[in-house]
Each structure stands twice: as structure tokens, then as C-alpha cells.
Amino acid sequence: MKKALLIASVLFIAVISTACINNIAVQELNNKAAEYMQKGDYESAINRLQASIDLYSTIYETYYNMGIAATNAKKYDIAIEAFENGIKIKPDFANFYYSLAVVQAEYSEELIELSDEKKEVSADDKAKSSDLKNAAIEHAKKYLELNPQAEDKDEVEDFLEDLNQEEVKEKPIVLEG
Known about the structure:
By secondary structure, this protein is mainly alpha-helical. It has two domains: about 1-90, Alpha Horseshoe (Serine Threonine Protein Phosphatase 5, Tetratricopeptide repeat), CATH 1.25.40; about 90-170, no CATH class. It has helices at about 1-40, 40-55, 60-70, 75-90, 95-115, 125-145, 155-170. The longest helix has about 40 residues, at about 1-40.
């Protein structure tokens, strides 16, 4: 009995120690990522934040910072995934929704701009762009719903209005004939 209690105690201490070490490592990785972001080195920040997530995947702030770093690096798929994963952890954190809306709108615009450079917008790019804009509209609305007294409410409403206007003003399809 004493031997079993001793083994259980040792295991408990080992688990607690590992958790403490992981928390310290996560904090160090997040701090280093913040330094990289301040310097504009978003790739290094993304790498540090991913390592942090690999160690401890339930800290919503890490996902938020990952989304911000990836947005600044124009890695839109990574940013969207980070914000969506953060929402799964903390669905009432309003900033996830507005940040997600912004990245979706930027990605939508970039798809069309890149296609325009090729002189032709593919049907797939048009559809993806439209889906991203619609999702951006919904996420911006969700931000306002969760944060009705937001200091940036007017700015978000202008952003929403711009997105809605862009949907209406999409380039017409010209039929050759």
C-alpha cells in the first residue's frame, strides 16, 4: 500500500512538473513571437506560435496572435485557420470575428487582383472570393453582436457597408457574341 501511494505521488509530481515546464515554454515562445512581430518578422513569429500551439493547444490568445502574424505575412489560409480554431476555444471573444472578417475580405480582394493580372478571373476564383466576402460579412456582424458598444463600431459598420457595396458592384460578365 505504501509503495503504491509512493508511486502515485511520484507520478502526480511528474505530471505537475511537466505542465509547469510546458507553461513556461509556451510563455517564452509567445514572448519571442511578440518580439518577432514587433520587428515585422512574421515568418519567425508564425513558427514560434505554431511551436507554442504544438505544446499547449488551448490558449486562445496564441491562436489570435497566430492569425494576426499570418495576416501580416499574407498567409491567409493559416490566418483563417488560426482564427477559426481560436473561436472553437473561446467563441465569445469578439476580436476573433472582426479579425477573421478582415482577413477574409483581404483574401477575397487578393484573389480577384491576382486573377485580374492574368487578364481573366476564373470561375473558381470568383466563387471563392464571393464565399470569402459573404463569410466576412457574417463575421463582422457577429463581432458587432458580441460587442455592441465597441469603440470601433462606426469603423466596423463602414467596413460592412463597403463589403455589401462590393457585392453589388461586382464586375459584370461580358458575353462575346
